[in-house]
Amino acid sequence: MEKTGTADSELDELFGNKKRIKNPLVPLGALMTAGVLTAGLISFRQGNSNLGQKLMRARVVAQGATVALMVGTAYYYGEKI
Fold first, then answer.
1. Tens digit of pLDDT for each residue in 48-70?
2. Which ranges does the record mark as transmembrane (predicted)?
């Protein structure tokens, strides 16, 4: 049976002394993406395909912005730590 702290110690060995950066905007972007997706699916189910299409396009924009934020954060902090 494995001890409960071994995964963290293995990660520390793998990444050394690098500080983990947490970006609070990434979860916000993920929640926004999920919310717009849910609203779009509901509007499709109710038969409002025009609104559904607009919401699906907004979902793609929100999802792209979230991924760009993740990549930008990784690039910005990649060499500094």
1. 999 999 999 999 999 999 999 98
2. 25-44, 56-77
